[in-house]
Amino acid sequence: MKFLELKPTKENLYKTFINNTIGRSQDVCMLVNMLIEIDEISSIGIDGRWGSGKTFFVEQCKMLIDSLNPNTDFYKSEYGEKIRSYYVSNNGDALRYTEKPMVAVYFDAWKYDDNTDPVLSLIYEIIKCDYFSVKLEKDRNWKDVVKNIADAVTGLNISGIIDSLDGKDYLKDQKGKQSFR
Question: pLDDT tens for residues 141-172?
Answer without folding.
Answer: 656 666 666 666 666 565 655 555 555 555 56
